[in-house]
Amino acid sequence: MIDHLEIKNTTCLNCNIQENELFRTLNYAQINHLNNTKTCVVLKKKNIIFNEGSAVTSAYCIRTGKIKLYSTGIDGKKQIIQILKKGNVIGLTDLLKQNNHELTAETLEDSIICRIDKTSFLKLLNSMPVLKDNVASLLSNEISILTKEITNITQRSVRQRLAYIILILNDIYENKITMSRQDIADYVGASTENIIRELSSFKKENLIQIERNIILVKSQNKLKIIASY
Amino acid sequence: MIDHLEIKNTTCLNCNIQENELFRTLNYAQINHLNNTKTCVVLKKKNIIFNEGSAVTSAYCIRTGKIKLYSTGIDGKKQIIQILKKGNVIGLTDLLKQNNHELTAETLEDSIICRIDKTSFLKLLNSMPVLKDNVASLLSNEISILTKEITNITQRSVRQRLAYIILILNDIYENKITMSRQDIADYVGASTENIIRELSSFKKENLIQIERNIILVKSQNKLKIIASY
DNA sequence: CGAGCGATTGAAAAGACTCAACCACCGTGG
DNA sequence: CCACGGTGGTTGAGTCTTTTCAATCGCTCG
Lengths: 229, 229
Description:
Two copies of one chain form a homodimer.
Chain A: E1 4-7, H1 28-37, E2 38-43, E3 48-50, E4 58-64, E5 66-72, E6 78-85, E7 89-90, H2 92-96, E8 104-107, E9 111-117, H3 118-127, H4 129-155, H5 158-172, H6 181-188, H7 192-204, E10 208-211, E11 214-217, H8 220-227
Antiparallel strand pairs in A: 1-2, 2-9, 3-8, 4-7, 4-9, 5-6, 5-8, 10-11
Helix pairs in contact in A: 3-4, 5-8, 6-7
Chain A binds a DNA duplex (30 and 30 nucleotides) through helix 7.
């Protein structure tokens, strides 16, 4: 199923926990404890971590790499809901709802993912009250992003949304966006052809630069104006 | 600002707490405590409870009535994110993010709303661990609905989404939907004219019945097929 | 009774998608 | 080493959906 390689020499102690959205507030002893409950795997690009509809077995933490979270429509068309990177935790929502996965998580590049068994994770949550607060603020933040997203989609054109998504991706990819047109289209929620046209329009307008499959942002400000936020 | 009338004779003890999404697990003493920290107001239809951008001061609980939660786009166009009714809690997300309100809450009909001061609410949360778990599952559920919504919007036609929304409204309004075309349009995320056209199409197809401003669902099954879920 | 708002309808324009063809690059196998 | 096939990217043309604009209608409320 998962084309992985378990690795033994990764410890949470040398992971940048301070930048982890969930575990950043843990102290040394707690990180140590966390370390003992997790296992790490190396995943190649395009590997599925969990599939929508499958039972929730774990929470996952990204040590390196990038993940796309998407839902699949009836016709197989994908909608990317979120791109996650180093320091993000995946699968929290589904785990807390005590339900099956509603989204699919797939690596966008080679990644190191740490897995914490569901019951261990819940035990961890219950033993560290601060984690529950972190979870609540994480989830709230997620809701905020999603509601903004919905308003964007219903009220803005593909051109505007693309500008918005490029700015998000520019941040995640640290100024060197390497994402397929298909994935960008699945993120924006538009057809690939339309995305290609708008991209080349942005290029013509000197807002971005396209080198091979790398997109470089040349004018963040103008893109912001187009995205109008 | 708020056209309200404070009322003294409402107690949480005779409110249907068992059906409250957040407080349902409280025992008698806890409900009593909750009762002492809240105040209730009667709000007329079209009253704004809080406005996007304003500071978060409280959490709110709906005793009777219905509320729409929406965000406003640049051009003033609204996007309804959620309709809430008796037993729902409003403002949780913004309160937990420690930020200003990102959505506006407005009554859709005359309602009785109970208010719990922000610090009291947080104190309450901290004193009753079970509440934090409820909060987490509430938020997770919300996320699940929103992600589904996003996929719906990008992948389905207005006709399909309208069918979907009508089924949701039919549930909330208990088989007698009384909502303006404008509000339905703002919920579906489409133009009013388009919604009117699709509604009259549904009527022609005998899926719904329209009496004055009341929409009655005649074939839930066929609507489900159109919404395809 | 008149103003005004919500609902409705028609026609035209804009936006987005689909389909089809073609290109460019890359890795493979002969 | 090169031909081949496949994948991802690109472009054009036509079609469909949805929006916009404008006009009309009907009802309610002062």
